[in-house]
Design goal:
mainly beta, two-stranded antiparallel ribbon, 0% helix
């Protein structure tokens, strides 16, 4: 299964050479990118060439910035129900 982003111009997938903007505003360019069940695995380089970023995340296309960003959709973790257990060793007998 491949995740695609629909835009006015058609369907987009992240490609090497395209920009990535992080939440704090730092900009990178994808060097390598491939899709996986858990999102996109990528290696990207900063514009100044001083930093390398490797990651795995879901991506969303920002048409205003013409760049990819980490998907802003927050995923709610499944809550597990925990039942208290009675431990006979800790019962106090009067």
């Amino acid at each position: 299964m491949e995740y695609l982003v629909s835009t006015e111009q058609g369907v987009r997938t992240p490609q090497s050479g395209e920009p990535l903007i992080l939440g704090d505003g730092r900009r990178f360019v994808f060097a390598m990118i491939e899709h996986d069940l858990r999102g996109w695995w990528f290696t990207a380089f900063a514009h100044d060439g001083r930093s390398t970023l490797q990651g795995n995340t879901r991506l969303a296309w920002d048409s205003q910035a013409s760049a990819w960003r980490p998907d802003p959709v927050l995923r709610v973790r499944e809550r597990r129900r925990v039942r208290p257990t009675r431990d006979a060793r800790h019962r106090q007998l009067d």
